[in-house]
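User: I'm preparing a small set of examples for a lab meeting where we compare how different chains pack in three dimensions. I only have the primary sequence for this one, and I'd like the structure in token form so I can line it up with the others. Please keep the answer compact; I'll paste it straight into my notes.
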Amino acid sequence: MIEPSPLPGDPTELHLRFVYADSLSDTPHADTLEEWRVEVLHRRRTHDNGRCPTAPGECEADHCPAYTLSDSAVGSMAFFRVHLDRGRNAYAALADESEDLHEIAQVLLDPVTGYFTDEVSELLEYSGSALLVMDRVTLREEWRGQGLGTILASEAIFRLMPGCRAVACAPGVTDLGSESLKNRAEWDRVNTKISHGWKSIGFRLYRDNIHLLSPVSEDVEEQRGALRGRLVELAASWRTAVS
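Assistant: Understood. Below is the structure token output for the 243-residue chain.
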């Protein structure tokens, strides 16, 4: 049984907005790297009693004209779809983009060909030629601690992974400004929790903190179902806490 949730709102009202900005630049780098930004939004229903045609509390939220909907940003995710078979050398493209992406390229890709190393290729079933990199997952502090980052990342990966042979990430803390994480023990605890969260999606440690997920693994669909069940439990817990 989940304890009453301290979440600031109904977690089932969270939704994702996928944003890909194409500059229409005809460059090999743009052909190789697609940067996807995923906005995590929370939908809030606000009731104006003065506009309600019935007594407050007796109307239906889906039909009452006194309700208005608004979205507030509660987090974001960043993904890169890396096309190994078009544009420039994918290893070089990742190395030029950021230090974190370079670290992933060093473990997974051949610097000469830009393709998966022979060792990585032997591990992966063929399901496409691209690589999906989960670069950042960030939630506002009041939404953390309940596993929502894992649930939301699972949904984003499911939408972005078609055509990819692998999904990769390097788990770790991204909120370097948090006062609580200046304690080494707390830093290690949070990093371990993050790593376990990604394992619950289906990621497995490959080498040097680089984790891989195979899009064709049976675990992906199974784990997604389990995480969606967790979301339902969190919502029930939240409703109990606010009732």
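A couple of notes for your slides: Strands lie at 14-20, 33-47, 67-83, 128-139, 163-169, 204-207, 210-213. The domain at 11-242 is CATH 3.40.630.30 (Aminopeptidase).

User: Perfect, thanks.
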